[in-house]
Amino acid sequence: MSFVYNKLMGGKEGLTGFILLALLVLVVFPLCLDLFRLNLVGKYLTYAFPAISLVLLWGYGGILSLGQGIFFGLGGYGMAMFLKLEASSPENTAIQSTPGIPDFMDWNQLTELPWFWEPFGSFAFTIAAILIIPAAFAYIIGAAMFKRRVGGVYFAIITQVIAVILTILIVGQQGYTGGINGITDLRTLNGWDMTSDYAKYLFYLINCALLLGVIVLSRFILTSKFGSLLLAIRDKEDRVRFSGYDVSNFKIFVFCFAALISAIGGAMFTLQVGFMSPSFVGIVPSIEMVIFAAVGGRMSLIGVVYGTLLINFGKTAFSESFPELWLFLMGGLFISVVMFFPNGLAGLWQDYGHHITDRFKFITRLFKRKESLPLDDTAKSELAN
Amino acid sequence: MLGGYTYGELGSILAMQGFAGFSLFSVLLLMALGLAIIFGQMGVINMAHGEFMAAGAYTTYLISTITEQYFPAFMPYYFVFAIVIAFFVAGALGYLAEYALIRHLYKRPLDTLLATWGLSLIMQQSYRSIFGAREVSPTLPDWLMGSYQPTEMIDIPINGMFVLALTAFVTFAVFYLMYKSNWGLRVRATTQNRIMSGAVGINTKKVDRYTFALGCGIAGIAGAAFTTIASTGPTTGTLYIVDTFMVVVFGGAASLLGTIASAFSIAQAQSILEFFISGSMAKVYTLFALVLILMFKPEGLFANKVRR
Amino acid sequence: MSTSTDLTLAIEDLTVSFDGFKAVDDLNLYIDKNELHVVIGPNGAGKTTVLDLICGKTKASSGSIKFLNKELTELAEHEIVRSGVGRKFQTPSIYENLTVFENLEVSYPYGRSVLGSLFFKRDQNVIDKIHEIAKEIMLDDALDTESALLSHGQKQWLEIGMLLIQDPQLLMLDEPVAGMSVKEREQTGDLLKKISKGRSVLVIEHDMDFVAQIAQKVTVLHQGKILAAGQMEKVQNDPKVIEVYLGH
Predict the structure, then answer these.
(1) Confidence class of residue A128 from pLDDT cuts 50, 70 and 90?
(2) Which residues in chain C have their CB less than 8 angstroms from residue A228's CB?
(3) What Rg value do the Cα atoms of chain A yield, rounded?
(4) Where are the domains of chain C?
(5) Over the stretch A39-67, which tens digit does the pLDDT of each residue have?
(6) Mean pLDDT across the stretch C83-93?
(7) For testing contact with chain C, the best of B304, B305, B308 (most C CBs within 10 A)
(8) Residue B68 sits in which domain range?
(9) In C, which residues are within 8 Å of A246 by CB distance?
(10) Distance, in angstroms, between B90 CA and closest chain A CA?
(11) Where exactly are the structural domains of chain A?
(12) pLDDT at residue B21 in the model
């Protein structure tokens, strides 16, 4: 029990935060929001996966990746390829010149399915690919860079360039990827209608469960010796190396894990939104993921979820009514988080949160009084004896 | 015979694509010179560098519009002045940005990246609010139009030659300023050892501010040059920022000679490849090759060996 | 000489050059078991570079470094540490965001692989060992203190403790008393004498009084070469050494 309490939840504060978050996403949102809004929240919550990955990678490890969109995209595209193949059965695509291949391939004069699309006909393979390919890709990048001690700024720039390369590839090779429009018209999953209300609720709940699971798993990593080592590497890399650790292996591991989490988010994005496009892969989404983490608090697994929600609510609200203002606001947010609130929302809560909790202390006091009454009785009877 | 071209044709294609590469090279190099100073010397990751270039481009556009409207007789000469003014406008914006933002972040390079990205969003939106989302171009003076034809098949645009000459001039000026002048010595001293430089009486704050402004000013010149080859929109800067960073990193962050060599090879590779494969794949191959090379040689082409 | 010996450390013909500048030039240095050896020398003599070479931070241009008859020059840094060499840096290099306890725990020589560290358990052995070391470095009252709050001297001790917990056969300390108060110097001297029992210690130091307090054997380094070596009194009266220290 103490293992669960300390290692998975992060003690009393972590547990309270975790329960509040779980209540919010599992109970409050489904009860208070209509399905359209709930689906929107579900979409936002998929961005929380890469944001959480950046807590481990950047907040604790000090490794800033400007390429989390790569892994979000790989996960999302993996899922989209499977769904697209299912949507492109010969019956559905009978009007095409080559029936049985995705419509955009037909438009681009492809006459057979490319080899790398073939295995995505299998759901099991797709799930495995979503979990393995992004992590393996991260391993290649990470091993090449960290073993040669490329870090800091150079790592950030190179991951950014890889995100650019991937975006250009996806946009440029539209016969194989669907191009700038991405992979669209995804309707069924194993013959089951993804667009029904029931499916939307179910995907939302699965998404939340996965998110909470990822938080617990990340908490486990951060409270283990590995977590202390990450902090140690961030602050004094040489000291860790000269304490007998192969620092690069630790960086590679955390980078792969971050890629894995981001890919899960991407796959859930495709399932809930019903398409995937290069605009979730490149520089801009990747940097936005960093700002979600920065605003939520780069050291807080729970904080970044709120940061992600807050910015995306803001973005939706503003870009509906004042699209011009939004970019100014977003830019100002970047600057002020860096200059004035380096620990983001979580830091603000830590500094000022007790002012709010103090006001609600009477609630806990109420509960305590009720509990203490029978105790008093037994105490009295004990005294009487 | 290669791909159905005769050798003569192939030579002309290479010459012309090579020259198109020179235009890209000029803009990239001007951008990279500024960034090499800001990133290579000062260690600031200026993600808004492209927006300072756009500031120069929009300044050129404004001056062209004003000249056309009120002083049409001045049209043949305005462009030279526009370059100078673009330098000062972008430089002044850089000076302000350093004062308001950058100077608080010198010890946190990764945070300069985020803050300047925020700055770039604000600048982009400002351009959109002021100049509209549509792309604009200044009216170029007649002498910049047209082309020079040494043989029947080779066709070299004059604006390209002008930009190349401008780039050469700016490069020499920067080289002189950084390596031969007293001021450059102060800059290099400050960036190498801030505390010591302060101790020997260099006003390091002033040096920082003017160095950053100089880097942004050169980006402004790049913007003026840019208007001769393409039109300017609010997001023009973003298109070049990644390439520019690659130029600086590939060249070895602190080496001016490396920056020139790297801008040249990147621009030429991309431009020549572009003729044979699609533009986007040319860019993919170029960037991919750069990433691979940097993985094996992280310090770039021309790095100083430093005793650790 | 390069055959099997019972020396802890045998450095032979060691040279390293940076762009033609020889920071360490054809150096020979031997350290016995249980020996406390001090290297002194003026600034730029190559003292820190020697430590860098031993622990793998800098790669040698030529020559050999044998630790318990094992060649170190080809090993990666973490492999050198794991074979039993500990190195303290000149400025205190500790993890300021972690407590004293966590600093020692992170340095505890188990759970050094990725998986090992994920599933590392803080059992009674670990706790006992940390308390034992903390007592030795006079920080047993400060285990839960965030290490950023320690005094400069305490930070130096903590870093020494982080090495001791790995029980190295060779302990290398780069100017361990720089910036310490007189009392802290004395305490550090006693600590060094205590920990040099059962292992070899290599100290780089500027402070001659401190050297006289602790040293058994002294080597004077000048421009990457050995100027003099032997007992402290002998070295102190060597005219070449006096020339180097006082001559200019």
Answers:
(1) very high
(2) 95, 98, 102, 105-106
(3) 24
(4) 9-246
(5) 999 999 999 999 999 999 999 999 999 99
(6) 89
(7) B308
(8) 23-249
(9) 76, 78, 112-113
(10) 19
(11) 9-342
(12) 73
- Is B211 domain-assigned? yes
Contact C117 A250 (CB under 8 A): yes
Total domains present in chain B? 1
- A380 pLDDT tier (thresholds 50, 70, 90): very low
Residue B10 CA to residue B3 CA, distance in Å, equals 10
Which residues does chain B have with pLDDT short of 50? 1, 305-308
Q: Is residue B272 part of a domain?
A: no
What residues contact C159, with CB distance under 8 A and at least 6 apart? A239, C88, C89, C92, C93, C94
B305 contact residues in C (CB cutoff 8 A): 18-19
Residue B305 near chain C (CB below 8 Å): yes
Q: Which chains touch C (3 or more CB pairs under 8 A)?
A: A, B
Please tell me the predicted confidence (pLDDT) of residue A279: 92
Averaged pLDDT of chain C: 87
Say whether pLDDT at A244 is over 70. yes
Write the residue in C93, C98, C111 that is nearest to A231 by C-beta.
Answer: C98
* Distance separating alpha carbons of residues A287 and A274, to the nearest angstrom: 23
CA distances B42 to B35, B47, B81, B112, B296, Å, are 10, 14, 29, 11, 25
Residue B243 lies in a domain: yes
Sign of CA dihedral B209, B212, B218, B220: negative
Neighbors of chain A with 3 or more C-beta pairs under 8 Å: B, C
Q: What is the pTM of this model?
A: 0.89
Q: Is the pLDDT of residue A1 over 60?
A: no
What CATH class is the domain C9-246? alpha beta
ipTM score of complex: 0.88
Partner A contacted by B36 (CB < 8 A): no
A330 has pLDDT over 50: yes
Query: Token digits for C112?
Result: 């050094």
- CATH assignment of A9-342, among 1.20.1540, 1.10.3470, 2.60.40, 1.25.40: 1.10.3470
Q: Does some domain include residue B260?
A: no
DSSP string, A24-57: IIIIIHHHHS-HHHHHHHHHHHHHHHHHHHHIII
Whether the CB of C90 is below 8 Å from some CB of chain B: the reply is no
